[in-house]
């Protein structure tokens, strides 16, 4: 087991070392690098460079399933959505960007538990709290909800590239799902976009032969969430620490954007998820 993990990590470290990177402001005011642009990508050859007015807000591991439908044995599986828990790895990733690449190949092989709020424990890496979840709305919008942070991203696709050759194929052996860059579709709260990179598993079977009419393929990935740089946040601007009486910038800034309609959407989606879980 240990040698399997070390082998997986060695692969992960070798890809990350060879990938060009997309520089972006980190939450601590320093520039950090999103591993981007697999050299082996087919089609679009790069993810988009993050706008200079954006800052990384959270780095999470997503662990869950990618769903597909199969119309007939001769059909090709069609993506219909995904469901994943989001675990906060921000501190780990900022301290050890290369180490982060070792997590999805291990997480993808662990059982998924959508019903509890349990943390993700990866031996040798740490224990990471669950801070949100990823799902698709009934209209097919990729959505990321962080209820206790009052943050929501309604995503729209900006760029998609194939995972680099040698990416972890996941427990179903089908291959690593795409790397992608989502922007704000509108109606997001406190988040403006996300990069999904360092994927493991999640691609469909090549054909529907021998498959059920709906398929769920386990996967894990890292998700790097961005928002407009909060210039009222003196820590991000690299100035002196705010006084103890200063209110948390993240909440004061997003409050005006948290409209009743958004609360309704979150409530509706949460209700739907709970109904499904029951
Ligand atoms: C952030 O930068 C992008 C790209 O340069 C620009 O289109 C957008 O208007 C900027 N947003 C704000 C709020 O300044
Ligand atoms: C994904 O498939 C599972 C069954 O494996 C189902 O319970 C779930 O509702 C589906 N979710 C989406 C978003 O398609
Ligand atoms: C980064 O994480 C990996 C995996 O846990 C570990 O082997 C490595 O020593 C870490 N590097 C640093 C600089 O902490
Ligand atoms: C889930 O766990 C996170 C991290 O431990 C915590 O912040 C959050 O309040 C919990 N959510 C629920 C619904 O229990
Ligand atoms: C199809 O679904 C049944 C019932 O959920 C399951 O037992 C079976 O393993 C599935 N077949 C495949 C090929 O996944």
Overview of this protein structure:
The protein is an alpha+beta fold. It has one domain (2-245, 256-277). The chain has helices at 2-18, 90-95, 97-100, 104-107, 249-254, 260-277, and strands spanning 21-25, 31-35, 54-69, 78-88, 120-122, 126-128, 130-136, 142-146, 151-161, 179-184, 193-201, 214-228. The strands form three sheets. Strands 3-4-7-8-9-10-11-12 form an eight-stranded antiparallel beta barrel. Strands 1-2 form a two-stranded antiparallel sheet. Strands 5-6 form a two-stranded antiparallel ribbon. The longest helix has 18 residues, at 260-277. One 2-acetamido-2-deoxy-beta-D-glucopyranose binds next to loops.
Ordered list of secondary-structure elements with their pairings:
Blueprint: H1 2-18, E1 21-25, E2 31-35, E3 54-69, E4 78-88, H2 90-95, H3 97-100, H4 104-107, E5 120-122, E6 126-128, E7 130-136, E8 142-146, E9 151-161, E10 179-184, E11 193-201, E12 214-228, H5 249-254, H6 260-277
Antiparallel strand pairs: 1-2, 3-4, 3-12, 4-7, 5-6, 7-8, 8-9, 9-10, 10-11, 11-12
One 2-acetamido-2-deoxy-beta-D-glucopyranose is lined by residues 210-212.
């Amino acid at each position: 087991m240990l040698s399997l993990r070390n082998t997986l990590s060695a692969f992960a470290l070798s890809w990350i070392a060879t990938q060009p990177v997309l520089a972006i402001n980190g939450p601590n005011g320093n520039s950090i690098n999103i591993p981007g642009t697999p050299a082996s990508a087919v089609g679009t050859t790069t993810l988009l460079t993050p706008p200079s007015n954006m800052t990384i807000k959270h780095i999470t591991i997503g662990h869950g399933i990618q769903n597909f439908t199969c119309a007939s044995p001769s059909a090709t599986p069609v993506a219909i959505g995904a469901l994943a828990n989001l675990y906060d790895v921000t501190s780990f990733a900022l301290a050890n960007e290369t180490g982060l690449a070792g997590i999805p190949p291990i997480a993808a092989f662990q059982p998924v538990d959508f019903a509890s709020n349990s943390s993700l424990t990866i031996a040798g890496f740490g224990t990471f709290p669950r801070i949100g979840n990823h799902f698709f709305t009934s209209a097919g919008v990729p959505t990321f909800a962080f209820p206790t942070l009052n943050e929501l991203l309604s995503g729209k696709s900006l760029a998609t590239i194939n995972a680099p050759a040698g990416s972890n194929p996941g427990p179903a052996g089908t291959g690593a799902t795409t790397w992608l860059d989502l922007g704000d579709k509108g109606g997001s709260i406190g988040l403006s976009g996300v990069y999904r990179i360092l994927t493991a598993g999640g691609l469909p079977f090549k054909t529907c032969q021998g498959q059920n009419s709906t398929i769920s393929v386990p996967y894990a990935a890292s998700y790097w969430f961005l928002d407009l740089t909060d210039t009222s946040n003196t820590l991000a601007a690299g100035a002196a620490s705010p006084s103890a009486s200063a209110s948390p910038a993240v909440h004061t800034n997003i409050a005006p954007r948290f409209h009743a309609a958004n609360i309704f959407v979150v409530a509706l989606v949460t209700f739907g998820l709970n109904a499904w879980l029951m």
